[in-house]
Amino acid sequence: MTETPDRRTRAGHGDDSIYWDKSKNRYIGAISLGYTPAGKRNRPKVSGKTKAEVREKLRELRKQLASGGRTQAHYTVAKAVTDWLAQGLKGRDAASVATYRSLADNHVIPQLGKGKLRDLEADDLDEWLEAEAQNLATQSLQMVHSILRRSISHAQRRGRAVRNVAELVEVPEGKAGRPSKSLSLEQGEAVLRAKQGTWIHAYVVLSLLVGVRPEEARPLTWSHVHLTRSAKEKPHVDVWRSVRRHGDTKTRKSRRSLAMPQQTVVVMRAHKRREQAACLAAGKQWNDERLVFPTETDELRSALNVRRNFRSLLKEAGFENPKDWTPRELRTSFVSVLSDHGIPIEVISRLVGHNGSGTTERVYRKQLRPVIAEGAEAMDEIFGDDDATEEISQAGD
């Protein structure tokens, strides 16, 4: 039986009203909540094809209001995500923001964006995550889920959402990532000989023989590279996991000072002399806050730039498929070579800044010193260089 449209009736404060809107050809339900601080009438509305549908929506709306909030009727998932990207990442590094934005634009908004946030259900997210798991590695899948969860939380704090359905689902295992590789001893020796006298050679030597992360090497400044021996310390480099916008470390325990093998000291000294000469030739003033591996315009190198130059070095070193390798695998090789040499895993853990024993963690929390020297000593044995030893001796360490 077809319902006959009713005339509009006036509702008192807090009452529900249902009326027919001819222009929309739908029933409209409204709750009168008085006036906003700006003097505008506060009448949240719902709509439906029948009175029964509108009554059900009004009941749901009242539940939301009783819980302290409500999801806006036309607020979409895409809007929630774009609002979080614009407002919820203040102070983050530009590269991190770009990563979140790329994942959102390619994996969240295309699949879920058009849907209304209030209609999003756990079943929808389970299906979405299972589909994404066929294309994304587990870590990327976790990041994609985190983007949605944090976007909804951001909407909740602004009264645009009541519940966070993303907190109700489990993230499945993603696609297996590309297995990491490590250089053999022969490959390592070839890499250490390639493109000598260039910045990428110095970068590779530092990464392979000291175990520096790519995100530690790219923003490294000369103030953190100590090339002279003192009465208390060997030549060493101060590194940390990532440099953020305000110059702080990601975690206190990520900070560590690593002694440099003799070959690394020689290469880095020569690299510094070249950088100083280039600075002087350009009419610029040298200072130790300059980047160790800058671009030609003294800017921070991108990860893509480093990767491209690294693969060029591998080509010169005789690698058949340079594109199969990334700079991060220099660090993997550092761990593998030390392990093969018999260095205890606890020592390697300290060298690379991973979570280690409780004692190691307490030391990291308290101080940046002492310099961790075991790795340098082992690398001197593995990739021994008599010429490097002779140069350091002549330099009057």
Explain what the structure shows.
The chain has 397 residues and is mainly α. It has three domains: 16-66; 77-168, DNA polymerase, domain 1 (Orthogonal Bundle); 185-394, Intergrase catalytic core (hpI Integrase, Chain A, Orthogonal Bundle), CATH 1.10.443. Helices cover 46% and strands 7% of the residues. The protein is built from 15 helices and six strands. The chain has helices at residues 51-66, 77-87, 94-112, 122-132, 138-157, 185-193, 199-210, 214-217, 262-281, 303-316, 328-340, 345-352, 358-366, 374-382, 386-394, and strands at 16-21, 26-31, 45-48, 225-226, 236-239, 256-259. A hairpin with a 4-residue loop joins strand 1 and strand 2 (26-31). Residues 7-14, 242-253, 354-373 and 392-397 have low confidence and may be disordered.
